[in-house]
Amino acid sequence: MSSIPNYPVNLQLNLTSTYSTFKNSVNQYLLFEKRINAYDAIGYGGILVCSGIGLDDSGNSQYYAFDMACPYEVDKNIKVYPDKDGLGTVVCKKCGSVYNVGYGFGNPISGPAKEILKRYKTSLSGDNLFIYQ
Question: Is residue 64 domain-resident?
Fold first, then answer.
């Protein structure tokens, strides 16, 4: 159970035309703090999508999606952002909590936070990445 409230999540990303540099990359991030289209739903604090460390059995990147709201602060305006270390971590600039997202768990590794980031489901179909609850 997450302390982050349930808000609708529905986002579709084309990894060939719109986000081609993200496809089959490692440790890259996309941030969605505002809707792209009228029908998009981006959760409580926005959506952070990351390409995981390592590839799946087919040689494709693994993609993970998390709500950007820090679960320690529980405020849609206090968000986590990629750390500049390049090691698959994101940080909350308010409380200083650091989370590991590179392996898809979103677990806190330092700071006062004890709760994992709220994670959303991802599904890759052809060149389209779907993000939903």
Answer: yes
Q: 78: domain CATH number?
A: 2.102.10.10
CB 105 within 8 A of CB 52: no
Name, in order, each residue with C-beta under 8 angstroms of 25's C-beta and a sequence gap of 6 or more: 51, 61
pLDDT in tens, 46-70: 999 998 876 566 666 789 999 999 9
Q: Looking at the domain assignment, is residue 2 inside a domain? A: no
Alpha-carbon distance 7 to 127, whole Å? Answer: 26
Each residue's pLDDT tens digit, 105-128: 999 999 999 999 999 999 989 889
